[in-house]
Write a structure and sequence with these properties.
Helix 2 crosses helix 5 and helix 5 packs antiparallel against helix 7. The protein has two domains: 183 residues, Alpha-Beta Plaits (2-Layer Sandwich), CATH 3.30.70; 142 residues, Dna Ligase, domain 1. About 2% of the residues have low confidence. The chain is α+β, with helices and mostly antiparallel strands. The radius of gyration is 24 Å and the shape is globular. The chain is 40% helix and 21% strand. The chain contains 16 helices and 13 strands. The strands form three sheets. A five-stranded mixed beta sheet has the order 5-6-1-7-8. Strands 9, 10, 11, 12 and 13 form a five-stranded antiparallel beta sheet that branches.
Length: 403
Amino acid sequence: MTPREASWECPVLHVDMDAFYASVATRDRPELHDLPVVVGGGYRGVVLSASYPARAYGVRSAMPMTRARRLCPQAVVLTPTAETYADFEMVSRSVMETLRQVTPLVEVVSLDEAFLDVSGSVRRLGSPYSVAERLRARVHDEQAITCSVGMAGTVAVAKLASRRAKPDGIVVVPPSEVTAFLHPLDVGELWGVGERTAELLHRLGLVTVGDVAHTPLTTLQRAVGAGMARQLHELAWGQDRRAVTPRRGPDEPDKSMGADETFGRDTDDRAVVLREILRLSAKVAGRMRAARVAGRTVTVKVRFADFTTLTRARTRPEATDVTQEIYRTASELFLGLGLQRARIRLVGVRVEGLVPRATVQRQLVLGEREHGWSEADGAVDRARQRFGDRAVRPATLLGSDRA
C-alpha cells in the first residue's frame, strides 16, 4: 500500500514548520541557506531556533547560547529584533490561515505547528496525502519556508510522525502500522513524558515505547501513579481519545483577515498586479462580511522574485467591510511603492483591527448616494450564496481563472 492509499485512514495531520524561526529569519538571505545559523537572544540568552546545518553540531532550541557557541563556533548568530518578531507572527498567521482554507478543524499549538482534521475535506480535495502535498506546496510558495507533515488516525501518533518527516517531508502511519512505528521509539518521545519521567522509566529498564506497552499496568501504576500509568499504556498502544479542537494560538488573535496569491510567473505588469489586488480585496471583504466584522487597517504585502518582501499599511478613519474601499486603499499603497519594472512573485492583502460590524457607525457624507458599494456587496454575496462564487465578479476580473 502506498502512502497516498494508506492516508485514507489517516485524517489527522500535524503540520510543523521546519526550523521555523531560523527559516523565516534567513529566507531573504540566500547566502545563509547552507550555513549553520542560530537565532537567539544575545550572548546570555537561549537558542530560539537553529537551522539544520547548525543542528548537525548538536545545537538545539532552548539551549543556552554559550553552549551553542561552544558546539558550533562558526555559527552565524542572528539576534531577533521587534521587526523580526513581527515577521514571525505575520508568517505564522498566514500559514494558519492557509490551513483553515482546507478545514475549519485547525488546532493551533504554537506559532509553528498545528493539528488538522481533514476528514470533512477529502471529498472536495482528494486523499489526506493530497491535502498534505497541496498545503506544503502553498506554504513553500507563499512563505518561502518548508513544513513537515505527520499523518495518522490519532493526534499523538500524527505528532510523532511529523518528527520523522523532518525536514520537508510527509510520514503516514496507518492504524495497521501504529505499533510497529511506536514500539522502537524511546519512551521519552511519548506525549506528556518529560525529562524527569523519562529518566525514571529508563532507571526501571523501560527504555522503548514497546517496553512500556508490555509492562503490566499495575507495575506502571506503582512507578508513576495511576493516571500517568493509564495514559502511558494507552499511548504506547496508539490509543488517543483526543480530537482536534479548533483553537487559535496565543499570538494569533482573531483580529485580522487576509489572503495572498503567488503568480504562476513573476510579473512586472502593474495592471496584472492591481487586478490581483482587486481579487484579493474582494475575497477578504467577502470573508469579513460572512463573519460580520469590519476593519480599519489595510496592509499590502509584495514579494519580489529574489524573495525580498515589503509591507505597507494604512489605517482608515473608520472600519469597513466594503470591497471597493479596501481595494482603493490597497491599490494606493501598492502604487505608492513607486516600483519601476520590478518583477513580483507574490502579492497579499490583509485587513486588521477587526471589530463586530454592528458596532461600526458609518459617518454620513454630504451629497453621498443613499445606496452605494455596501449595498452592491450585499447583493453580490446573496448571488454567490445562491449560484456559486463565480456568479458575480468585477468586470476587471472577467476571464481570470482564479476569480
